[in-house]
C-alpha cells in the first residue's frame, strides 16, 4: 500500500490516486506503482465511487474535468485528480482515512441506505475518538461538521449509485474489493505489507535534497506503521543525525520544524523584515522581562531502558546514545536514575535485603547497576558535549524496614523520624551515592522518594514507600538532610514531593515552612499523570510565588499509561504533541526542566514485571537490531537541543485578532545571548503568525497544522 509519506506528497513518490491503467503520475512520465498485497500481487483495487459535488479542498486540477472524492470522518471531502475515462470513474480502495482503522465499512447502494452509511461513518468516527484518547481535543469540535458532511456525502453517493446500478468493477486484486453486482460495496484499508510498515524511499531522497533533518545531517529513514505519522528507523549501519547548531548571522534566523506530515527537525533559514503588516496572531519579544532559569531536559535510565539498549548490537547502541546525548542528536543533559528496582524491572530487589542490617554492611549494587545502568551512563557521558546532571530516586526501602513487610501495597517506614529505621533509610541514600562515585558517576540531586502518596494506597501494584508531607518533613529534618550534609555528598541537592502536582501547594507548604527541613531542600519534583485534575496556575504558579527560592522540576511523564490507552503507538503524533504541550505549559509556569520516563522500551512497552506497559520516545525491536525514534523523541528535541542549561525564560506578549488561530509558545535567552522561540500548533489548520523582536525586526511565519517549530536568532551585542 502507498505509505503515508507518499499519500501526503504524491508528486515525490510518482504516485497519483487514480484509476489503474491510465498512465503515470502527471509530469513524471511513469506508471503509478502497484499496491502490494499480502499475496505479493500488485494492482489498484477500484470501487464505484463517482465524482460528487461535495465542497472540499482541490489538491490538483484534473486534466479532463473528472474528479473523484475521498471522505474522511475527521476531514471534509477532498477532491482527487483523475485521468479521463468513459462511463463510471473509479477510485483506488487505498484512499481511505486512518479513521477507518483496519475494519471494513459496508456501503449500501441506494439513497436511503447511503444516508445510513453516512451516519454510521460519522458514528464510527466518534467511536474512534472515544477509543483513541491520544487524538487532540479539537476533533470533538469538528465532529458535528463531520457528521453533517457524512450524511450529505452518503446521500449523494447513494443517488449516484442508483443512476449506475450495473457499473462494472474490473477488480484485479485479491484484496478486499467488492464482489461484482453485490448490493454492497466493501471498503477496507488494505493490510500492511510484511514487516508491519511502509517505506517511501523517494521521500527520503527528497528529504536529503532539502537538507533532511538539518543541513548536512543524515535524513530520517521514515517508516509508517499506520498510526497517523512516521517513525525514524535506526540500525547498526544507519541513523538520522543533526548537525551541531550554528547560529545564523545577525538579521537572520534559523528554524527547525517537525510535523505530523513527516518533517523531523527540518532546518531552514530566513531573514528579518523591517516593514511587515501585523498578522492575526502576533508575538512580541521582551527580553527585559526575566523569569526562571532552565536546568534542562532528559529521560530515565530504568532497568527496562538498559535492557533494551543492551539488546542491540554495539553499533546500534552507539547510534541510540548519540541520538539522545551527542551534538548530532537532541543533547539531553538530565538523567533520572532509579535507586534499585521499579516496576520497569524484571524482578523486585533493593540494595540491602539482609534482614536487620541497620548499618548496611551488606549494602551492594546489583548486576542491573554494574553491568547495565552504569556502563550506559558512562557511555552517555562519553558522547555528550554538555555535562550530564544525574539525579536519583528510590521507589521503596528494603521490606524489613517497612510496616507491611512488602515492596508493594500500602506501607511506610517502621517507627518514627529519628529512630534506627529512619537513620538506616537515610544512610541508604549516602551508600548509593558512595557506590556510584566509585564508578566516576556523581549526582546533581536526589529526590526524597518516588510518589510517596502511592504508598498510602491499599493494594498498590508495584514498588512504593508511603509518606505524608508531615512525615517527609520530619524525615528530612532529622535524618536525610543531616546524613547528606555530613557526607562527602553535601553538594547533592534534595528534591521533595516527586509526585503529582495536584499535591501542590499543600505539600510544599507543610514541608518548606519548617525552617530546619527547608534548609536542606533545593527543589520540588512533579509528575504529569494527574495534571487534568490540577489547574497549572493554581498549583505550579502559586507554589512558585509562595516559595520562589525553590526550583520546580518535572521528574516523570509517559504516554500510554492509562488503562484505556494502547500502550505503544508507533508514529503517534498526538503523543508527541502532548509532551510539547506539557513542556510549554510547565515552562510558562516557572518549571525549570522536564524529564521523560524510560529512555527506551520494547515493542510491547516493557519489560515491566507488573505488566504496567507504556510508550517511549524510542522503541527497540531487538529481533531486527533496529530502534524507532517516535514523534515524542523529536518533540523533546525541539526543547532539549536548543534550550541549554542556564537559558532564561523571557517575556513574550501576545496579540490575537482571531479566535481559532491559537498557538502555544515560549521564549528564552540562551547563555550565548541567542534567542530561542518554540511554537506549537496542535490544531488541524495552518496558522499565520508574526514575531517581533524590537532589537532585530519582524518575522512573518506560518505554523502548519499539527506542527512544532523552534526559531533561533542573535540579538545585537
From TrEMBL:
It is found in: Lysosome membrane. Residues 646-711 form the Glycosyl hydrolase family 30 beta sandwich domain. Keywords: Glycosidase, Hydrolase, Lipid metabolism, Signal, Sphingolipid metabolism. Its main location: membrane. It is a peripheral membrane protein. It comes from the Eukaryota. GO terms for biological process: autophagy; cholesterol metabolic process; glucosylceramide catabolic process; lysosome organization; negative regulation of macromolecule metabolic process; protein catabolic process; regulation of macroautophagy; regulation of membrane potential. Its EC number is 3.2.1.45. Residues 294-643 form the Glycosyl hydrolase family 30 TIM-barrel domain. It is an enzyme of class 3 (hydrolase). Belongs to the glycosyl hydrolase 30 family. This is Glucosylceramidase. The gene is LOC103823955.
Amino acid at each position: 500500500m502507498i505509505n503515508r509519506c507518499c499519500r501526503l506528497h504524491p508528486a515525490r513518490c510518482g504516485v497519483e490516486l487514480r484509476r489503474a491503467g491510465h498512465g503515470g503520475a502527471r509530469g513524471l512520465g511513469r506508471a503509478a506503482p502497484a499496491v502490494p498485497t499480502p499475496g505479493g500481487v500488485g494492482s489498484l483495487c477500484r470501487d464505484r465511487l463517482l465524482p460528487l459535488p461535495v465542497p472540499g479542498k482541490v489538491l490538483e486540477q484534473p486534466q479532463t474535468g473528472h474528479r473523484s472524492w475521498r471522505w474522511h470522518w475527521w476531514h471534509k471531502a477532498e477532491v482527487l485528480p483523475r485521468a479521463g475515462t468513459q462511463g463510471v470513474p473509479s477510485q483506488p480502495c487505498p484512499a481511505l482515512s486512518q479513521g477507518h482503522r483496519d475494519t471494513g465499512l459496508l456501503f449500501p447502494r441506494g439513497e436511503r441506505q447511503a444516508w445510513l452509511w453516512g451516519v454510521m461513518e460519522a458514528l464510527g468516527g466518534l467511536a474512534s475518538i472515544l477509543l483513541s484518547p491520544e487524538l487532540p481535543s479539537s476533533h470533538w469540535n469538528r465532529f458535528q461538521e463531520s457528521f453533517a458532511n457524512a450524511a450529505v456525502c452518503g446521500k449523494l453517493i447513494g443517488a449516484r449509485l442508483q443512476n449506475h446500478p450495473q457499473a462494472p468493477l474490473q477488480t484485479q486484486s485479491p484484496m478486499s474489493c467488492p464482489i461484482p453486482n453485490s448490493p454492497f460495496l466493501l471498503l477496507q484499508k488494505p493490510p500492511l505489507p510484511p514487516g508491519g510498515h511502509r517505506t517511501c524511499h523517494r521521500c527520503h531522497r527528497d528529504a536529503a535534497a532539502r537538507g533532511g533533518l538539518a543541513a548536512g545531517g543524515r535524513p530520517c529513514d521514515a517508516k509508517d506503521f499506520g498510526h497517523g505519522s512516521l517513525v525514524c528507523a535506526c540500525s547498526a549501519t544507519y541513523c538520522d543525525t543533526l548537525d551541531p547548531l550554528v547560529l545564523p548571522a545577525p538579521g537572520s534566523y534559523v528554524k527547525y520544524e517537525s510535523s505530523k506530515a513527516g518533517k523531523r527537525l527540518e532546518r531552514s533559514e530566513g531573514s528579518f523584515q523591517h516593514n511587515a503588516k501585523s498578522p492575526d496572531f502576533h508575538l512580541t519579544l521582551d527580553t527585559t522581562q526575566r523569569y526562571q532559569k532552565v536546568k534542562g531536559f532528559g529521560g530515565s535510565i530504568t532497568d527496562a531502558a538498559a535492557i533494551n539498549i543492551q539488546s542491540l548490537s554495539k553499533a546500534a547502541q552507539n547510534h541510540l546514545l548519540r541520538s539522545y546525548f551527542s551534538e548530532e542528536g537532541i543533547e539531553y543533559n538530565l538523567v533520572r536514575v532509579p535507586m534499585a528496582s521499579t516496576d520497569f524491572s524484571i524482578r523486585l530487589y533493593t540494595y540491602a535485603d539482609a534482614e536487620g542490617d541497620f548499618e548496611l554492611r551488606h549494602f551492594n549494587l546489583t548486576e542491573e547497576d554494574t553491568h547495565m545502568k552504569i556502563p550506559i551512563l558512562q557511555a552517555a557521558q562519553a558522547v555528550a558535549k554538555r555535562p550530564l546532571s544525574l539525579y536519583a530516586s528510590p521507589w521503596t526501602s528494603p521490606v524489613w524496614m517497612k510496616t507491611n513487610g512488602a515492596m508493594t501495597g500500602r506501607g511506610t517506614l517502621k517507627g518514627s523520624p529519628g529512630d534506627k529505621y529512619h537513620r538506616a533509610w537515610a544512610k541508604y541514600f549516602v551508600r548509593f551515592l558512595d557506590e556510584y562515585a566509585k564508578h566516576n558517576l556523581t549526582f546533581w540531586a536526589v529526590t526524597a522518594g518516588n510518589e510517596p502518596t502511592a504508598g498510602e494506597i491499599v493494594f498498590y501494584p508495584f514498588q512504593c514507600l508511603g509518606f505524608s508531607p508531615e512525615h517527609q518533613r520530619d524525615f528530612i529534618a532529622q535524618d536525610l538532610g543531616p546524613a547528606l550534609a555530613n557526607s562527602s555528598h553535601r553538594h547533592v541537592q534534595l528534591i521533595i514531593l516527586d509526585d503529582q502536582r495536584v499535591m501542590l501547594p499543600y505539600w510544599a507548604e507543610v514541608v518548606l515552612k519548617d525552617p530546619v527541613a527547608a534548609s536542606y531542600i533545593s527543589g520540588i519534583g512533579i509528575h504529569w499523570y494527574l495534571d487534568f485534575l490540577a489547574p497549572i496556575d493554581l498549583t505550579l504558579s502559586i507554589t512558585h510565588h509562595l516559595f520562589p527560592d525553590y526550583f520546580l522540576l518535572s521528574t516523570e511523564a509517559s504516554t500510554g499509561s492509562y488503562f484505556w490507552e494502547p500502550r505503544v503507538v508507533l508514529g503517534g503524533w498526538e503523543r508527541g504533541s502532548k509532551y510539547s504541550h506539557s513542556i510549554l505549559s510547565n515552562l510558562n509556569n516557572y518549571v525549570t526542566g522536564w524529564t521523560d520516563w524510560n529512555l527506551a522500551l520494547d515493542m510491547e512497552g516493557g519489560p515491566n514485571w507488573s505488566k504496567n506497559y507504556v510508550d517511549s520516545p524510542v522503541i527497540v525491536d531487538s529481533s531486527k537490531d533496529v530502534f524507532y525514534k517516535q514523534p515524542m523523541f523529536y518533540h523533546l528535541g525541539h526543547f532539549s537541543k536548543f534550550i541549554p542549561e542556564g537559558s532564561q525564560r523571557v517575556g513574550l506578549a501576545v496579540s490575537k485578532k482571531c479566535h481559532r488561530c491559537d498557538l502555544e509558545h515560549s521564549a528564552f535567552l540562551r547563555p550565548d545571548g541567542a534567542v530561542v522561540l518554540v511554537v506549537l500548533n496542535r490544531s488541524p489548520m495552518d496558522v499565520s503568525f508574526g514575531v517581533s523582536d524590537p532589537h532585530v525586526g519582524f518575522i512573518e511565519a506560518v505554523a502548519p497544522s499539527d506542527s512544532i517549530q523552534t526559531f533561533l536568532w542573535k540579538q545585537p551585542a
